[in-house]
Specification:
Blueprint: E1 2-9, H1 13-27, E2 31-39, E3 42-49, H2 52-61, E4 65-70
Antiparallel strand pairs: 1-3, 1-4, 2-3
């Protein structure tokens, strides 16, 4: 299963993604994918996690939400 987290991006996308990558690197999280896109005029990042607890911790740390689990 993959656990998808959506993080809204306010401000500089490059800076925010750098913060997320640093955080992920410190915790050695196993990711499925890391994407950014524009939805309804707002920029969001969607990050896929292999471990639910990591997804929930990441969502809490960056003001996001876990969208749910998807089959890998």
């Amino acid at each position: 299963m993959l656990y998808i987290v959506e993080i809204p991006i306010d401000g500089d996308l490059t800076e925010r993604m750098g913060q997320m990558r640093t955080w992920l690197g410190h915790l050695h999280c196993e990711l499925g994918a890391f994407r950014s896109s524009s939805i309804g005029g707002k920029t969001v990042c969607r990050v896929e996690f292999m471990v639910e607890a990591e997804a929930r911790t990441f969502a809490q740390a960056f003001g996001g939400r876990v969208l749910g689990a998807a089959a890998a």
